[in-house]
Amino acid sequence: MSLAQVETVAPEETGGGLGRDAWRRLRRNPVAIVGAILVIMFVALALLAPWLAPYPPDKPVGQVTPTSIPGPSAEHWFGLDDLGRDEFSRVLWGARWSLVIGVVSLLLGLVGGMVLGLLAGAFGGWVDGVVMRLVDIMLSVPGLLFAIGIAAMLGSGLDAVMIAIAVVNVPIFARLLRGQMLAQRQSDYVLAAKAVGVRRRRIVLGHVLPNSLTPVIVQGTLTLAVAIVDAAGLAFLGLSSNDPSIPEWGRMLADTQRYLSSAPLLAVFPGLAIIIAALGFTLLGESLREALDPKYRR
């Protein structure tokens, strides 16, 4: 078998057949459609917040007292918060901050996890053992508790939150990619490439790694939902930015605890925003998993 023939032995997962089949399944899946609509709405509102928000998110636009906080009205759809700022505008801008924190932490965790997974899956042996023991140690600590510890150690701030969430996600991507690469290493096309003398680096980077990325991409969609919830949780605990003008959903929930009896809607709106955003990415990610992974197909 020649080298050119080996190049064509790669599994069908890299071809257009599986992609077309997955797209057909997604279009017929109502769960995927609902998830996609929620995700598109969330991303659109986050990107268009500067133009959709009727008021600045950090400036008071009305008079309030601790015992009298105006609720929803024609002028202020979600009412005012405890400092007289428009709640609807702050929820819109909160989507923007949640998207930035979620995407940045996801990318950092994905890169770190892929580096460790690539090392473990490509070299095996003692390298695999060292990397997986490190991954096991990181996974032995509950994710949110691990993130709280890292954020507290780094100090309050958005950077600390993004790094903390990214570190928590590193072992998840590392273990997933390593498992996929180990399975691909026993495939016929890899054995054939080794038999004709193809270099290991070319096999790993040219075939094994690309054919192992599909589950990692699906996991990234699911992880983005968790990242949004974790970011809100860390902000609720006071581990995010100390700047009160930044409209983070978790920080908004924390600030409204004193006014739950007089203005409960101040907690309802950011809470619903967190649920809807996380639900959209979760539904879309689960649908992608069912469409792309043969084990989950019905």
UniProtKB/TrEMBL annotation:
Query: Which SUPFAM superfamilies does this one have?
Result: MetI-like
Q: What is its main location?
A: membrane
* GO terms of biological process kind: transmembrane transport
Which residue ranges does the record assign to the ABC transmembrane type-1 domain?
95-285
Gene3D superfamilies, per database record:
MetI-like
TM annotation in the entry:
30-53, 97-122, 134-154, 160-177, 216-239, 259-285
Where is the protein found, in the record's own terms?
Cell membrane
Q: Which UniProt keywords apply?
A: Cell membrane, Membrane, Transmembrane, Transmembrane helix, Transport
GO cellular component, alphabetical, reads: plasma membrane
Domain of life, source organism? Bacteria
Zinc recorded as keyword: no
> What is its membrane topology?
Multi-pass membrane protein
Which PANTHER family does the record match to this protein? Answer: D,D-DIPEPTIDE TRANSPORT SYSTEM PERMEASE PROTEIN DDPC-RELATED (PTHR43386:SF1), OLIGOPEPTIDE TRANSPORT SYSTEM PERMEASE PROTEIN APPC (PTHR43386)
**Recorded family membership:** Belongs to the binding-protein-dependent transport system permease family.
Protein name as annotated: ABC transporter permease
The scientific name of the source species is Planobispora siamensis
